[in-house]
């Protein structure tokens, strides 16, 4: 959890502006990690699987938007969160 707090401070500078694209990606990533750990022990929870797919798709769309608008911030976000970048971007 400490890793996520430090990443949050790096990405948004301690500003809790939840409308900022990078902070939305951070919070979605945090929710995705929580759901992933839940699904490791409850593999047949299909409602959670559907919710996870929706969160992943929302994060992907935000990453596409960020890569189009601010490439430097996109690379910083992907690197700091340790997530894979988009194909072909």
UniProtKB/TrEMBL annotation:
UniProt KW keywords: Chloroplast, Plastid, Ribonucleoprotein, Ribosomal protein
Chief location of this protein within or outside the cell: plastid
InterPro entries listed in its UniProt record: Ribosomal_uS15, Ribosomal_uS15_bac-type, uS15_NS1_RNA-bd_sf
Cell location: Plastid, Chloroplast
This protein's GO CC annotations: chloroplast; ribonucleoprotein complex; ribosome
MF terms in GO: structural constituent of ribosome
Keyword Repeat in annotation: no
Keyword Chloroplast assigned: yes
GO biological process: translation
Pfam family, one: Ribosomal_S15
Family, per entry: Belongs to the universal ribosomal protein uS15 family.
PANTHER family reported for this sequence: RIBOSOMAL PROTEIN S15, BACTERIAL AND ORGANELLAR, SMALL RIBOSOMAL SUBUNIT PROTEIN US15M
Subunit structure and binding partners: Part of the 30S ribosomal subunit.
Protein name stated in the entry: Small ribosomal subunit protein uS15c
Lineage of origin: Eukaryota, Viridiplantae, Streptophyta, Embryophyta, Tracheophyta
